[in-house]
Structures are given as C-alpha cells and as structure tokens.
Specification:
- This protein is an alpha+beta fold.
- It has one domain (5-130).
- Helix content is 37%, strand content 23%.
- Strands 2-1-4-3 form a 4-stranded antiparallel sheet, with helices on both faces.
Length: 131
C-alpha cells in the first residue's frame, strides 16, 4: 500500500452480521493519519479521534480481502466518530494552510449516511488500514 489509507465501509444486517458495502482509498496523508488515531502525529494541536484498536474480529469476508496487506496501523470507527474525523480534518487543514483529500473523506461519510438513513440499515462502521 505504500502509506495509502484503505477504508472499507461495512453495515450490520438484520442478523447482526457485518457486510461489506464499499472500499475507498485515500493517498498518503499524515494529517489524516493523525486525526484518525494519532499515528505519525507531528502536528501541534491535533488530538486523535480514536486510539488504534486493530480490526474487529467479525469483519465481513470481503473486508478481510480488502484489508489483507499486513498493515502496521489498523483501526475502525463508527459513523459518529467518522463525522468527527471529517470536521477536525477540515479545521486542521485550514489552520495549517494545506490542502487535503476532503472529497474522499466526505464520500466515506456520505456512503455511511446513506446506508444508515436511506437503506434501512441501522449501524455502519469504517474499517481502516494504513502503514
């Protein structure tokens, strides 16, 4: 992967099994790493939304396939946590006067929103891997 961020969006079905919904790749972005979980955080004032917690044990089979890469940093976030990532990433990028991958970050949030509110799916999560 070479430092890219790979995200797999999953939803919980009626039987409480996790199902793969979409994959999004974002090029290497150390600010986004830092905002998500504090990895490679060299930025003043950036507090991670969550700690690294590895991948859940109950990944969907397709998510396992997408995440198979021996990544150093693995975690997952709920929809609410991802909303916080979106907000903090934008604020810090503006403060630091640098560009970012706002479209890709927003697409992940939009997919999760659509799944939770329009497709009668109750819970989503984003599974994340980067090295």
């Amino acid at each position: 992967m070479g430092g890219d961020i790979v995200l797999a969006i999953e939803y919980s079905d009626d039987d409480n099994r996790w199902r793969f919904l979409a994959e999004v790749s974002i090029p290497r972005d150390y600010l986004l790493f830092a905002v998500i979980c504090g990895a490679r955080n060299a930025y003043d004032g950036v507090e991670p939304v969550a700690e690294l917690k590895g991948h859940p044990d109950n990944l969907a089979p397709a998510t396992k396939y997408v995440m198979d890469g021996g990544d150093v940093n693995e975690t997952w976030l709920s929809y609410v946590e991802w909303l916080t990532v979106m907000q903090q990433y934008k604020e810090h990028a503006e403060r630091l006067e640098r560009g970012g991958y706002f479209m890709q970050v927003g697409i992940v949030g939009r997919i999760m929103l659509d799944a939770e509110h329009h497709n009668m799916l109750t819970i989503t999560r984003v599974v994340i891997a980067f090295n």
